[in-house]
Write a structure and sequence with these properties.
Elements lengths: L1 H35 L5 H5 L2 E2 L4 E2 L2 H32 L4 H14 L3 H15 L6 H25 L3 H9 L4 H30 L2 H6 L19 H10 L4 H39 L1
Antiparallel strand pairs: 1-2
Length: 284
């Protein structure tokens, strides 16, 4: 009787905590939607900012954010997946692998502003990329690399060893086994790292502050060596240091709403890909 009572109290507590968390999420979303929905219009989404960024649109910032997300994923996703394949499939369980994992965890705990300073020193100054999409993308890629590596490792560990032994027994090489058996089975879970990385990259301000973001640049980039506006930095600027903070506050809420919508759409796309490839693996 006492065990049932304790179990019931635990379930009720967890349920209440879950409801509180969901309630906080909806409260934040409702607050942003209530204050920002009135600003959203076709002009707001497709025009450049004007009048000290208190009017006009945010299209350059939207495009800049998408360029940075795409550039960082092009760098971080292949490198992170290949690093995880090496540590999980080739390196074994020696001290080298343990050291790499410790360093990966430490890298993931470094504050983002430190990545920004490192990106400015390496990519902007030493390599001569300047304040550019390339420098910002590489910096953001380094920021999300530990997350991609760890999630990919967990996805590879979830693949049963019988898949590997069965493939090797049929005469396949280790590389063929990884390419045609292990990776397809793990890919639905690997996309989890992609989803989390997109969410983090989309909202980072400190790294792009030192490497790519422009205060006011109402034109579109023409190459990867150009500066761009970005939604997180644009939001910070118009909310704290604009020419007229009160006049630009609705624009700030609208920018925040657009940023949330972009992250949501990217997550939905990644989730769709995860389910698609998951069903494909099950049918095969």
């Amino acid at each position: 009787m006492q065990k049932k009572t304790t179990q019931r109290i635990a379930f009720i507590t967890f349920r209440i905590l879950g409801i509180v968390v969901v309630g906080i999420l909806f409260w934040i979303l409702g607050f942003i939607i209530y204050n920002g929905a009135g600003v959203i219009s076709w002009e707001f989404l497709t025009k450049a900012p004007t009048e000290g960024m208190t009017s006009g649109g945010i299209f350059p910032a939207i495009l800049g954010t998408l360029c940075l997300v795409a550039g960082s994923m092009i760098f971080a996703f292949p490198v992170g997946v290949m690093s995880a394949i090496f540590t999980n499939e080739y390196a074994g369980n020696g001290w080298i692998v343990k050291f790499i994992r410790i360093m990966t965890n430490n890298l993931g705990s470094i504050p983002s502003i430190v990545f920004g300073l490192f990106g400015m020193a390496l990519f902007v100054n030493m390599l001569g990329f300047g304040d550019s999409i390339l420098a910002g993308s590489l910096t953001l890629g380094l920021l999300t690399l530990p997350l991609v590596i760890r999630t990919t490792e967990e996805a590879l560990k979830a693949v049963p060893d019988s898949y590997r032994t069965g493939s090797l027994a049929l005469g396949a090489t280790k590389l063929q086994t990884i390419r045609r058996v292990v990776l397809p089975a793990a890919f639905p879970n690997i996309t989890t790292g992609l989803i989390l990385s997109i969410g983090r990259v989309s909202g980072e301000t400190a790294p792009i502050l030192f490497t790519v973001a422009a205060y006011f640049l109402p034109k579109l980039p023409s190459s990867i060596f150009d500066q761009v506006m970005a939604l997180p930095y644009h939001l910070y600027v118009i909310a704290t240091s604009g020419t007229d903070i009160e006049a630009s506050r609705p624009v700030a809420y609208g920018t925040a709403l657009v940023l949330i919508a972009i992250v949501l759409l990217m997550n939905l796309l990644a989730t769709f890909l995860r389910r698609y490839f998951g069903k494909k693996v099950k049918t095969n």
